[in-house]
């Protein structure tokens, strides 16, 4: 039978647990979910705006979307915001999206 090393202050009990925590902390487990979210985003906003924006993550009910320039930011924020938000809520009811935050990237 294999013995686990004693936990020394600050050192994880096993390498597997340490890797799992690292992967979870860095968000690597959620890559496929992020790709799915971005695909849904691009489907809603259409090909033109989809090429110029990327849905990145949802935190506390706020979807973060990275946009390439001010024109795209203004179009999404001013003209399409409510429509896109309602479509996201309808298509992704379990996501908990309440709002969209646009950032230039």
CATH topology: GMP Synthetase, Chain A, domain 3
**What is the strand content?**
15-25%
The low-pLDDT segments are: 1-9
Q: Into which percent range does the helicity of residues fall?
A: 40-55%
| Class based on secondary structure composition and strand pairing | alpha+beta
One letter per element, helices H and strands E, the order comes to HHHEEHE
Question: What number of structural domains do the residues give?
Answer: 1
The top level CATH class name: Alpha Beta
- Strand count, sense and closure of the main sheet? 3 strands, mixed
Identify the overall geometry. Answer: globular
Kindly report the name of the CATH homologous superfamily: DnaA, N-terminal domain
CATH architecture: 2-Layer Sandwich
Describe this structure in words.
This protein has 105 residues and is of the alpha+beta class. The chain has a single domain, classed as DnaA, N-terminal domain (GMP Synthetase, Chain A, domain 3, 2-Layer Sandwich), CATH 3.30.300.180. Helix content is 51%, strand content 18%. The chain has 4 helices and 3 strands; from the N terminus they run αααββαβ. A 3-stranded mixed β-sheet has the order 1-2-3. The radius of gyration is 19 Å and the shape is globular. The N and C termini lie far apart (52 Å).
């Amino acid at each position: 039978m294999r013995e686990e090393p004693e936990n020394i202050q600050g050192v994880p009990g096993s390498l597997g647990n340490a890797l799992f925590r690292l992967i979870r902390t860095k968000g690597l487990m959620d890559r496929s979910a992020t790709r799915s979210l971005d695909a849904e985003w691009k489907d809603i906003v259409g090909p033109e705006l989809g090429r110029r924006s990327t849905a990145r993550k949802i935190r506390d009910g706020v979807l973060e979307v990275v946009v390439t320039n001010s024109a795209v930011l203004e179009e999404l924020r001013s003209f399409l915001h409510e429509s896109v938000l309602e479509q996201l809520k309808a298509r992704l009811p379990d996501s908990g999206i309440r709002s969209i935050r646009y950032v230039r990237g």
